[in-house]
Q: What sequence folds into this?
């Protein structure tokens, strides 16, 4: 599974950074950036799903490899 | 829905606007004034609503639920013509549509802001339109990102504890405190004025200015002009002081900032400071008060917060969803149809994000407060390009204020006489007086 962010849609709410800090960071301008290549380890699937489920702009998605 | 009676009144209400071009004196940036409908009772919330009527915020949840079933976009002839969508889908659609809706004016009043003020507007970036908007927003958003805001936690906690200490002797079961005026209202001004580098102790001034901008909706043009000039003079003095003595704060940052290689004009710096004060104070104060109002009536939620502090990551968002304080507005830029309603150029549209958050078609159990709700895409901070840029600060203040309050007072309720809360008027909804019995 990979976590992705659509940078055109992200408005910098930063919900994902709070819910899945292992997977998401915030850039210098305040918008979400996915750490590394976005691969979600098994033990972080729950957090990744929470980040997706709580994005007000529907900017995050989880995709099968 | 519209009765003959309502129509008769509505015609009288809309009336012909006064124009600055006819020599009428108006507040800065206002070119047109519609006749006041202040004090005329609301005939029907679907066809004659008034967001400044004291009943509106007091019964907001019931009013929105009723309108969502009946309309779902309400209309009123007041303020020269105003629309009120209540479904998440419609609010969302308008928030994203910067073609047909302008942010030139985001507070609904009888006056209309001069189109000449676009695309910057009076308080950029909230009053700005694309493409200028994104430049102004970028400047500010970067200053409110998590690694700028997180370090403020200790200071915010100290402010909260000081206010709780200042309540004096508490006799459990007897003492009634006002959690709005003795606690909530003091937290955000202390933080934002420190960030802007303003003299400490000016909180009363800010509350006075902000009250005039947000709650004195029916103020006369002369009154608005006078307060506007006074507010500008205060901000001008702060700008001058920072020019003489630059330091590490948001005011000096704005004075040094550039858009397109140019320093910002004086009015733009002042407008951004105005925005930070207005948006940073009333909103968070309202959210803190409304959350405490909820907790006073739901002791099980207080217990959960005390015994399971990890639940706060979800609870915080549920407070924001269920008691979202902010309704923004837009002006219709071009005639457009939304939800089957013909919106005309220069009509106002209120964007009640708090109503969208309680739309059962958008979220399960919309009318229930679920402290550990795990799927919560609420839009308390708005949606799209204008969503609140200070949300990290707002969340931190709200979280710390609730934590400190429930840690100090494990048991509190509404007074023995029942709910004595008074709610604000207008677009920012929250308790202005919140008597609570400490048990």
A:
């Amino acid at each position: 599974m990979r976590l992705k962010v659509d940078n055109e849609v992200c408005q910098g709410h930063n919900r994902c950074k709070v819910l899945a800090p292992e997977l998401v960071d915030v850039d210098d301008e305040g918008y979400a950036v996915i750490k590394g290549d976005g691969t979600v380890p098994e033990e972080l699937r729950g957090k990744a799903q929470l980040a997706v489920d709580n994005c007000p702009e529907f900017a995050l998605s989880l995709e099968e490899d | 829905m519209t009765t003959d009676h309502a129509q008769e009144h509505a015609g009288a209400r809309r009336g012909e606007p006064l124009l600055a071009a006819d020599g009428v004196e108006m507040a800065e940036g206002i070119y047109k004034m519609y006749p006041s409908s202040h004090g005329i009772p609301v005939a029907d919330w679907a066809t004659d609503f008034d967001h400044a009527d004291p009943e509106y915020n007091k019964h907001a949840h019931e009013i929105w639920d009723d309108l969502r079933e009946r309309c779902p976009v309400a209309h009123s002839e007041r303020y020269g013509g105003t629309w009120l969508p209540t479904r998440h889908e419609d609010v969302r659609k308008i928030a994203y549509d910067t073609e047909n809706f302008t942010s030139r004016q985001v507070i609904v009043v009888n006056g209309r802001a001069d189109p000449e003020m676009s695309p910057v507007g009076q308080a950029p970036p909230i009053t700005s339109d694309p493409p200028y908007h994104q430049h102004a927003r970028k400047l500010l958003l970067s200053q409110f990102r998590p690694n700028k805001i997180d370090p403020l936690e200790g200071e915010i906690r100290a402010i909260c504890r000081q206010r709780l200490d200042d309540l004096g002797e508490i006799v459990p079961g007897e003492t009634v405190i006002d959690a709005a005026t003795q606690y909530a209202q003091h937290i955000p001004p202390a933080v934002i004025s420190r960030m802007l580098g303003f003299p400490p102790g000016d909180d009363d001034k800010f509350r006075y200015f902000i009250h005039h901008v947000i709650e004195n909706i029916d103020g006369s043009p002369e009154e608005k002009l006078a307060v506007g000039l006074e507010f500008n003079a205060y901000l001008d003095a702060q700008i001058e002081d920072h020019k003489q003595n630059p330091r590490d704060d948001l005011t000096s940052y704005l004075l040094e900032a550039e858009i397109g290689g140019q320093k910002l004009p004086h009015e733009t710096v002042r407008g951004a400071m105005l925005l930070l004060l207005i948006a940073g104070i009333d909103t968070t104060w309202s959210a803190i008060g409304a959350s405490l109002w909820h907790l006073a009536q739901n002791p099980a939620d207080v217990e959960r917060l005390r015994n399971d502090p990890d639940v706060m990551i979800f609870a915080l968002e549920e407070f924001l969803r269920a008691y979202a304080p902010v309704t923004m507005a837009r002006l219709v830029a071009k005639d457009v149809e939304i939800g089957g309603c013909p919106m005309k150029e220069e009509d106002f549209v209120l964007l009640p994000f708090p109503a969208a958050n309680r739309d059962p078609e958008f979220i399960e159990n919309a009318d229930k407060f679920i402290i550990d709700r795990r799927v919560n895409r609420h839009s308390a901070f708005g949606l799209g390009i204008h969503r609140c840029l200070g949300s990290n600060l707002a969340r931190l203040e709200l979280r710390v204020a609730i934590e400190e309050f429930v840690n100090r007072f494990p048991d509190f309720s509404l007074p023995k006489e029942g709910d004595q809360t008074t709610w604000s008027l207008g677009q920012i909804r929250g308790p202005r007086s919140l008597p609570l019995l400490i048990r």
User: Anything to note?
Assistant: Helices of chain A lie at 15-19, 45-53. Chain A touches chain B at residues 11-15, 17-19, 26, 28-30, 50, 53-58 (CB under 8 Å). The mean pLDDT of chain A is 96.
